[in-house]
Amino acid sequence: MMMCSRSFFILPVTTIIISCAIMAPHLQTASANPKKVVRILDSIPTNNPVQPMKPLLVHCKSKDTDLGAWAMNENDEREFHFRVNIWGTTLFWCEFNWGVKARDVVVFNAQEGQCGGERYCNWIVKTDGFYFAKGESPKDSDFTASAGPKKVVRITDLIPTHNSVQPPKVLNVHCKSKDDDLGLWTMTENQSREFHFRVNYWWTTLFWCRFDWGDKFANFVVFDANSRDGYDCRRERYCNWQVKTDGFYFAKGEFPKDSDFVRKAYWMDK
Prior knowledge:
By secondary structure, this protein is mainly β. It folds into 2 domains: 35-145, Immunoglobulin-like (Sandwich), CATH 2.60.40; 151-269, Immunoglobulin-like (Sandwich). The chain has 1 helix and 19 strands. The strands form 4 sheets. A 5-stranded mixed β-sheet has the order 4-1-7-8-9, with no helix packed on it. The chain has a 5-stranded mixed β-sheet with strand order 13-10-16-17-18, with no helix packed on it. The longest helix is centred in the N-terminal third of the chain and has 31 residues, at 2-32. The termini are far apart. 18% of the residues are buried. The model is unreliable at 1-31 (pLDDT under 50).
């Protein structure tokens, strides 16, 4: 009976020792996880030509933590502090709203080593976008623009030179955005033209094109970063348009099949 009694007490003690041995490395890792600081500076002039007198609203959160909303004005600075979790997966993103413009930005991602070995991750918000630099006291030249994804709009002329609608007529195409005028192109049967760009920092990039073919014309949007319909290119790099005698056909993706194209616009008479 005495031996049984001793075994009864030895087992829990052994279990506790083993448990402590297992937990110790994790506790040590947790205490060693680095502290980080995300600092955000509002550098949007109060009187600016884009949207004057509009405060910057910022709402930052992670999967587990909601930091609430802040209202910021020119030269205001806010920061938040945290430790990277034991799995090294900490991620914070912020929603920025400035008048009619909005953008979600990942301001810290431990898995991408966004701040490297630095404690401070700095963001400056300007009228033309978001700029990032790491380090406690970065210089202005250290900040780089946080650019949107690359996009390509490809236009193909599939109007037969000899067709039943109009005698041989060239296709004239003129594409532009609010900030860029791509000039006039003259296209003929089976010719393709494309233009490349990055979506702007506020995700408001929009391009439209004017098409002229003999006594017919069309004018419509060929790319809209804010599009929410079924034929947008937000998740694809390539946005393809085919021009035919009966209208304009759209498909997304680098190598779409003919069956992927859907008619989205029509010719009008001048």
